[in-house]
Specification:
Catalyzes the condensation of 4-aminobenzoate (pABA) with 5-phospho-alpha-D-ribose 1-diphosphate (PRPP) to produce beta-ribofuranosylaminobenzene 5'-phosphate (beta-RFA-P). With about 325 residues, the protein is of the alpha+beta class. It has 2 domains: about 190 residues, Ribosomal Protein S5, domain 2 (2-Layer Sandwich); about 130 residues, GHMP kinase, C-terminal domain (Alpha-Beta Plaits). It is about 40% helix and about 25% strand. Helix 9 packs antiparallel against helix 10. The chain starts with a strand and ends with a strand. The relative contact order is 0.18.
C-alpha cells in the first residue's frame, strides 16, 4: 500500500497571548509540491526502511526520517496491540525542519498505512492524538485530511497552559474552524535557501518560552488582518488584497519573532520576490522556506529567487495549492 501526502505552508500562529482563554491557532495552506510518497508492506518482524532516491538525500535527512518512522510504528502498533514487522520504502521525500511540515505528514502517513494494512480506518485528528502531532498548530493535521486553506482554533489554556511548540506539547490537535478551496489560478513559488534549518527541539522551546506572551494588541491586529482582510480576499479571489495580508503578517505577532531569527538572506529573498511582482511573500513556520503567491509571473519570480540564492545555493519549486488531502493507492 502506498500513500501520497501534500506539504503545507504555515503562514502564522494567531494567539500566543492567551488572555482570552485560548492559545495558538494557526493559518496555513496545503500545497502539491514538495510531496511525500511512502510505501509499506508486512514482514515477519522488525522494521526495515529503504529510500528510493537515497543518492539525492543526505544522511541527516534519511536518519531523521528513519527515527520518525520507527517512533510512529511503535506508537501505532502499541495502540493496535500488534507485533508485526513492516518494510517501508520512501519513494519521494522532502527536507525536514524546512518549514514545510514533513514531520507531521510522515508520522500521519506511517500510521495511516499500518491502519490500512490492518483493515482499520481513522481520520487524521484521531491518528494525530495517538502519534503525538498537532499539539500547537493543527494545520498539518488538517492538510493531511482535507487540503486547502485552513484556519484552526488553537487550544483552551486549561488544556495547554504553557507556550510550547508542537514538538513539546501533549495537547490534542486543534479544532478546524475554517477551510476554503484555494483559487486554482493562484500559484506558489517556493525558495528554499541552503541556510541552517529552522528552529526545532529545545531551541524552539526556548524561543516560545522567552518571547511569549505576545502583546495583546499585536494579537488583536493579527486577528483583524486574518478575519477582515485575508479570509474575505480569498473568498472573493482578490489576489492583491490577499497578498497584502500575507506581507503585513510578516511584521505582526509571533511571525515577526520567527522572521527576526533568520539569516539576513531570508529578508533579501522576500523583498526581491515582492519587487519581482509577487502579490504576497511570507516565510513558512520557522523557515527557511520563503513562499510567494502570484498568478501569471512565476517564471520571473523563480529567476529572481534563484539569482538571489546564487552564492549560498538553494532550490526553487513552482507549485500550487492542493484542495484535497493525502491519498492511498495500491501502486505508485
Amino acid at each position: 500500500m502506498i500513500i501520497e501526502t501534500p506539504s503545507r505552508l504555515h503562514m502564522t500562529l494567531i494567539d500566543l497571548n492567551g488572555t482570552i482563554g485560548r492559545v495558538d491557532g494557526g493559518v496555513g495552506l496545503t500545497i502539491k509540491k514538495p510531496k511525500l510518497v511512502l510505501e509499506a508492506k508486512y514482514q515477519d518482524e522488525g522494521i526495515d526502511i529503504f529510500f528510493k532516491e537515497s543518492h539525492k538525500l543526505n544522511e541527516k535527512i534519511m536518519a531523521d526520517y528513519g527515527r520518525k518512522i520507527e517512533n510512529t510504528v511503535k506508537k501505532i502498533t502499541d495502540f493496535l496491540k500488534i507485533d508485526s514487522g513492516f518494510k517501508f520504502e520512501v519513494k519521494t521525500a522532502y527536507p525536514t525542519h524546512s518549514g514545510l511540515g514533513s514531520g507531521t505528514q510522515l508520522s500521519l502517513a506511517v500510521a495511516k498505512l499500518i491502519l490500512n494494512l490492518n483493515d482499520r480506518d481513522m481520520d487524521a485528528w484521531q491518528i494525530a492524538k495517538i502519534v503525538g502531532r498537532g499539539g500547537t498548530s493543527g494545520i498539518g493535521v488538517r492538510a493531511f485530511d482535507h487540503g486547502g486553506f485552513i484556519i484552526d482554533g488553537g487550544h483552551k489554556v486549561d488544556e495547554k497552559p504553557d507556550f510550547l511548540p508542537s514538538s513539546a506539547s501533549n495537547a490534542r490537535p486543534a479544532p478546524l474552524i475554517a477551510r476554503y478551496d484555494f483559487p486554482k489560478d493562484w500559484k506558489v513559488v517556493l525558495a528554499i535557501p541552503n541556510v541552517p534549518a529552522g528552529a526545532s527541539g529545545q531551541n524552539e522551546v526556548n524561543i516560545f518560552q522567552g518571547y511569549c506572551p505576545i502583546k495583546l494588541d499585536e494579537v488583536q491586529k493579527l486577528s483583524h488582518l486574518i478575519l477582515m482582510k485575508m479570509m474575505p480576499s480569498l473568498v472573493e479571489e482578490d489576489l492583491d488584497s490577499f497578498g497584502s495580508a500575507v506581507n503585513e503578517i510578516q511584521n505582526t505577532g509571533f511571525k515577526k519573532i520567527e522572521v527576526g531569527f533568520q539569516d539576513s538572506v531570508i529578508n533579501e529573498i522576500a523583498q526581491n520576490l515582492r519587487n519581482a511582482g509577487a502579490a504576497g511573500v511570507g516565510m513558512s513556520s520557522f523557515g527557511p522556506t520563503i513562499y510567494a503567491v502570484t498568478d501569471t509571473n512565476t517564471k520571473d519570480i523563480s529567476k529572481v529567487a534563484q539569482s538571489t540564492m546564487n552564492e549560498i545555493g538553494g532550490k526553487v519549486i513552482v507549485t500550487e495549492a492542493k484542495n484535497s488531502g493525502a491519498t492511498l493507492k495500491k501502486e505508485f
